[in-house]
Every structure is written in structure tokens, then in C-alpha cells.
Amino acid sequence: MTVLYVQHDYAVFGFGETRQAAIAMAAQWLKDANGKQGCSVEYAESLLVAAPKTGQMTLYETPEVFPAEAENWGGEELLDWYHDIC
Given CA atoms 60, 29, 11, 72 in this order, what sign does their dihedral have? Predict the structure, then answer.
């Protein structure tokens, strides 16, 4: 299974085999409330919504396993992969 931390309809900011792994990865890329890159896991988790509108953060899940080469993809490519398999 793969969990993606996504800015809805834009790009993937984190991914992992669990919800916590995806959120932790996203926290490294997101900006905090002061605009500095990198934020706490708690802050990244607080941005998540269940029914996102464009631009809001959410989690996507798929039973598919990420391909090894996905480690080198950008956020938009990761989102394209998700849409292709779902």
C-alpha cells in the first residue's frame, strides 16, 4: 500500500507505506506558518482535510506499491502516477 500526502489537484509532497511516513516526508517540504521550509509533523497533519478543495492538503491511498524509480520523480509526476493507476 502507498499513502500520498497531496495538495489536491496539484502535486504530491510526501509518500510512504503508512499515513505517518507520508506526513513526516511532507513535513520536510512544506513551509511553516512563517514561510520557512520544513515544519513539524503536527503542523503538516493539521493541514489535512477529508474533503479537499483545490489547493488543500489531503491523503490519497492506493493498494499499489510505489515503483522504485518514483523516488526520483517530482510531485506532479507522482500525482500523475496515482491517477494512472486509480
Answer: negative
Is the pLDDT at 14 greater than 90? The verdict is yes
Query: Which pLDDT tens digit goes with each residue over 29-72?
Result: 998 888 889 999 999 999 999 999 999 999 999 999 988 888 89
Q: Which residues make Cβ contacts (< 8 Å) with residue 31, sequence separation at least 6?
A: 37, 38, 39
Q: How far apart are CA 81 and CA 62, in angstroms?
A: 11
User: What size, in residues, is the chain?
Assistant: 86
Q: How many CB atoms lie within 10 A of CB 39?
A: 19
Contact of 6 with 78, CB cutoff 8 Å: no
